[in-house]
Amino acid sequence: MNNKMRLHYSLLFLSFFFLQFSVAQSFSGGKTEQQIEQEAFTFFDGENFINALPLYQELINVYPQDPEYNYYLGVCQVEVNENVKEAIQHLKIASTKNVNASVPYYLGRAFHMNYEFNSAIRYYRKFREYYKKKSIGIDRLIEMCQNGLPLVNSYYVVDVKNKKVVNRNEFFRYYDIEGFEDRLSKKDKSLTSRYDGDGDREVACLANKGQYIYFSSYGKNKKTGRDLYRAKRLRNGGWGEWEALNSLNTVYDEVYPFMSNDGRTLYFCSQGHTSMGGFDIFRSVYNEISDTWSEPQNMGFPINSTSNDLFFATDLNDEYACFTSSRENGKDEVTIYKIKLSDYPEQKVVMNPDLLSNIAILNVGSSSVDGNLFEQGAEEPSYSMKYNKEDFPYFNFPVTSELTYHYLNEFKSSEAREIFIEAKNDQFNSDSLIDGTEDLRSQLNGLEGMPHTILSNKISKLEQKSFELSKQAENKLLKAQSQESDYLNKNIIGTVTAEVHAPSKKGQLVMSSEIIPSANSRSGAKVVNKTEDGYVYHLQVGVFSNRAESSFFSGLDDVKEEIVGNGKLYKYMVGTYSTFAAAKKKIPEVRQLFPNAFVVAYKDGVKISLSEAIKVTDQDYKPEPQPVAAIVNTKAIQTVTDDQVNFRVQVGAYSGEVPEDVKLKLENFSKYPIDYSKDYRGYTICTVGNFDSYSKVSKLKMELREAGLGDAFTVAFSGNDKITIQQALEILRQ
């Protein structure tokens, strides 16, 4: 071995040594991974997301692809409103393993908070579709996203004079506008319902020189939430009968009414009307002649955001105003913004929707320019369109862990391709600015006084712009990756729950896990469209982006077609069976043509779960015993009652034989029960252990990972039904 080779191997050894050392030292305070995880989950379970977040971040640094850690970190980031864009990536990783039933909900919230309303709607609907019992309020969240779409097409340039972060309790005490305190009043008993509580609900606004008072209350019942009322001053100094502002009230909450000094313009906050998230601020004008209120007008973006925006109040001359928002804060704090009002506020079109979250951050002495924040008076650098479709260089763009693009024509989603081109141009301009600053720095030598200061400021601004463009490029690349993978997942390669096999000549075969209604349709294939009454079973063979020809199902009988995916996809099933056992017997035969065929159940033409159908049609059904050869060094899983909760570690799900290296690694864990069972798709699910404690299973999970089974994660069962970790812990606490 020559000296060069010796040096090469020495460097490899040292690199490996330092890598091992860095991993070993990666946890703070000398704690083990299990201790960090247990502490983090204790905080999480107690909804102390602020303290749980840094612990899960520490775990993610070591296990960046762990689905559980990604789920918990993503939820924490959403709950405390921190790094929401990053939370989307964490939650998408969690979604690949179906770690928790709430993943679609939190993905919807993350997209919603990031002003990506269409993506938010998609995940909200997915959560509502699969988890109807837990989806209370989802319809309203979807409505808010739909409200937001037109609101963020343009934005008002807001002149922010001051902003400060305060505790959310009685935040209005910090408002600094002329005459505000004189119009702020506390509700007395005559203005309080027995349903009203303490705190902000006691705030009222005096108007028309103290002759009226405006306030919110639950009123006589709580069915419509908090509503707006006003009362007139009596001669004895008290207040008269309540007058509900019915044209302004909705079935949702209305709070913080504030009457302008003109005695006609009322500002208030509502979760109803056209709110795009939480409470939005609205304005309505009172007509004394007709005794009516104008249609509530949303104050627009970015005064309103996807967070709670509250208590808009103006000074005596309608020159300045204050309002409060939680858009930049966690649960315990809010930010107060003092702005200068304008009779004709400047309105601009949103050129880049990716930067809506930037526009929403209202900085003092700044104006929004197409979504990029610059100090007033800053020189905006020129932007060059270096790359276009016709002349784009070779590149390496990882779409998934197994798929990398090198040319533009490989993109299947035109939207993802355009975003990718934008990202490359952003990065080119960022790099160009850095090159320019290096030239300017060489000119600093020899300059003193004002010329030095001016040039230094220019360099600083160019560096800031370069940084913003670089981050913008990074975010666009992530979005392009997400858009392309989502497109492939929906239209080409299928969902994560099934693989793709045997595409037809006319339509690309995809797999779908949607719950879909029955449909009466016609096809070139010999399909049966009659809806069967009662419980029946079919073998689902695939979903196509185009209608399949009859020849594609040659050799199969009783082919059925359903239109799915909003009318864009065609789902095909074969056979009709009265029992699950009968359908299952046909699987080997059908899988010769369609390797991923699996059993689905219907009741009166509507798809239902297999477990629900089997309880009725196959009351005596027992799973077939597994061949002895398929089980290596296993111990029987103890019999579990229907209400008993247990935790296991899932090592993997395999469409074929369990890999030999996995079996060899599991030999060292033969003291634990090892189970190989088939799911409804025919996949072999391998789990290890059987514990009644989350902390106990956590220790085994760490050991399995250290043994080289890096995809191991915790699963929970109630009896034989798989449930989420949170559900299991709730059952144990009862």
UniProtKB/TrEMBL annotation:
Any keyword Signal? yes
Q: Which domain of life is it from?
A: Bacteria
Signal peptide feature range: 1-24
- Alphabetical keyword list: Signal
The answer to whether keyword Signal applies is: yes
Protein name, UniProt field: SPOR domain-containing protein
